[in-house]
Automatic annotation (TrEMBL):
It comes from Methylophilus flavus. Belongs to the GMC oxidoreductase family. Residues 415-536 form the Glucose-methanol-choline oxidoreductase C-terminal domain. Pfam families: GMC_oxred_C (PF05199). Keywords: FAD, Flavoprotein, Oxidoreductase. The keyword Oxidoreductase applies. This is GMC oxidoreductase.
Length: 561
């Protein structure tokens, strides 16, 4: 069932063996799977069905530029950020879990690599099809992205990235969790503290909940923090502040924060053929796109982080593309928030706004046929379709393609999340996010473009063109990917170097687990959602195998079986 704290039987809430804090991709996946296994779960969500100004206040904080503000790209509601998720599903590569000599702080603990074995189930939860990321997923006779790429293997390889519907987990699982006799969801209920008893610092005895009007301390048996990276870290830091016995976590807690960083740069020019640029459907009907990656061996040889390239469309805001469709989209989206306008314009600003708008209007009139055709596609393949085309892809008329570069970031101890003195309406300290690119991040990105340029020079039909000075300048100013927050309760074997173990249990606390991108030891180039879901499904099996799911807490606070 789904309800609110004010209507709940408080004593009955203590009978649930597992309490999950956060109803986003991780929390809902964990709750749904445990329910299907016949286990009883209390799922607590700080938001409701929609965002409100009061709820948004909980995300207000500070962030160093160019990191997005703490209210951006985060949703506190049932379903979490999957409400605005674009649907891209990309797995970690096998070498992402391994210790790499050229990547500081790399190497997940033994056993963590089996997270990848949960990708098939995670893809099902995400509605993204089969666990197949080869181009043959389009069919046995699929042609490569361009004919001469076969000359560049094994150094450069082609894979696909899959897309969900996009799937809003709140909408998808609402009916299942409402009907479930095993799950009780509390909406608009914020967990504001994890509480240990003075004589039992190795166990969470209770959690404090608040619905904006009243607070309630709930005795618990097992707690899983399943919110976003920033929110989970904030709650852990607040609990550490109240429980000095948890000081052994200080070496890692809140530290090693990372985002993927993104750059759209260069001009990839083809002669004699057009590359595969559009979305295609896999054999099971899932939209997917091509991407290019250097092999793990090539990355190690050149000291590179893991990254991927995609062919990109020209900047919407630059009317020289001549496309009536792109100009129509730009004109329609010019009222968006500044951060989204930056994405549309490849991270640059446009001077002389009025003059640019007139050029866009001219493009629309001169290319009205394409605009009409696109309107039809938008209506039937995006607006009304259950499985939607993820976004608009229109090639530059001059035959060149900017490259979109997405890279993992070194998890550096100086990138961190800290508590501020200022508090929100629940009395919880707000957070400050400190983020910047490291020297290795920048150097790796520059190498990527230079090495790719060298590889393309082996071909007859493809050249990558850019100015070296502009590359170095642009890479230093590369932007963090807004919603990809990772690493501040990282996974490892040693409590002096990590916060959770290979099973996501917090070191030194017997009944606290974390299912969040905050546990990522390294972050690959991959969007985190698929791996977050896989991590949560793996944790569900772990909890199910343990005695945790068969226990509850009675009203005297004594554990019962």
């Amino acid at each position: 069932m789904i309800g609110y704290l004010k209507d709940a039987d408080k004593l009955a809430l203590e009978s649930f063996p597992v309490c999950i804090v956060g109803a986003g991709a991780a929390g809902i996946s964990l709750a749904a799977k445990l329910s299907r296994l016949g286990k009883r779960v209390l799922l607590i969500e700080g938001g409701g069905w929609n965002e409100t100004p009061e709820i948004l206040d909980a995300y207000v904080g500070k962030a160093t530029s160019p990191h997005p503000q703490t209210t951006e790209f985060r949703y506190q509601r049932f379903g979490g950020t999957t409400h605005l998720w674009g649907g891209r599903c990309v797995p970690f590569d096998s070498h992402d879990f391994q210790q790499r000599d050229h990547v500081p702080e790399s190497g997940w603990p033994a056993g963590a690599e089996d997270i990848a074995s949960y990708y098939p189930e995670a893809l099902e939860f995400c509605d993204a099809g089969n666990n197949d990321f080869a181009i043959s997923a389009f069919g046995p006779k699929t042609k490569p992205i361009f004919s001469e790429i076969t000359y560049l293997t094994p150094d450069l390889n082609e894979y696909i990235e899959r897309y969900s519907l996009p799937t809003d987990f709140g909408k998808k699982f609402r009916q299942e969790l409402t009907a479930s006799k095993n799950v009780h969801v509390l909406l608009e209920t914020r967990c504001i503290s994890l509480n240990c008893l003075p004589d039992q610092p190795d166990k969470i005895a209770s959690i404090t909940l608040h619905d904006g009007n009243q607070s309630f301390t709930l005795k618990v048996n097992e707690v899983v923090l399943a919110g976003g990276c920033i929110d989970v870290t904030r709650l852990m830091l607040i609990s550490r502040q109240k429980n000095p016995a948890l000081s052994y976590l200080d070496a890692s807690l809140g530290k090693y924060y990372a985002c993927h960083y993104d750059l759209i740069f260069g001009a990839l020019r083809f002669q004699g053929e057009k590359p595969v640029f559009d979305f295609q459907k896999t054999l099971e009907g899932v939209y997917a796109r091509r991407k290019l990656q250097f092999s793990p061996q090539f990355q190690a040889q050149h000291g590179l982080l893991n990254a991927a390239f995609r062919l990109h469309f020209p900047a919407y805001a630059d009317p020289s593309h001549g496309s009536g469709v792109l100009s129509t989209i730009y004109l329609a989206k010019s009222i968006l928030k500044p951060e989204y306008q930056t994405i549309l314009n490849h991270g640059t600003s446009q001077p002389d706004q009025n003059r640019q708008l007139l050029k866009h209007v001219r493009n629309v009139f001169l290319d009205i046929g394409s605009v009409v055709a696109f309107t039809y596609q938008w209506l039937f393949k995006i607006k009304l379709a259950k499985r939607k085309v993820p976004y608009t892809l229109i090639a530059n008329r001059n035959g060149t393609y900017p490259l979109e570069f997405n890279s993992e970031q070194v998890q550096d101890i100086n990138n961190r999340i800290e508590l501020l003195d200022e508090v929100d309406r629940f009395g919880m300290p707000r957070v400050s996010v400190h983020w910047k690119l490291t020297g290795l991040d920048i150097a790796s990105g520059i190498k990527y473009f230079n090495l790719l340029k060298e590889l393309f020079e082996r071909t007859k039909s493809c050249r990558l063109e850019f100015d070296q000075n502009e590359l170095e300048k642009s890479m230093k100013n590369a932007l963090p990917v807004g919603g990809h927050h990772m690493g501040t309760t990282r996974m490892g074997n040693n409590p002096s170097e990590s916060v959770v173990d290979a099973n996501c249990k917090v070191h030194g606390i017997s009944n606290l687990h974390i299912a969040s991108s905050s546990v990522f030891t390294t972050n690959s180039h991959a969007n985190p959602t698929l791996t977050i879901v896989a991590l949560a499904l793996r944790l569900a099996d772990h909890l199910n195998r343990s005695a945790v799911c068969s226990k509850g807490v009675n009203n005297e606070g004594v554990t019962k079986s």
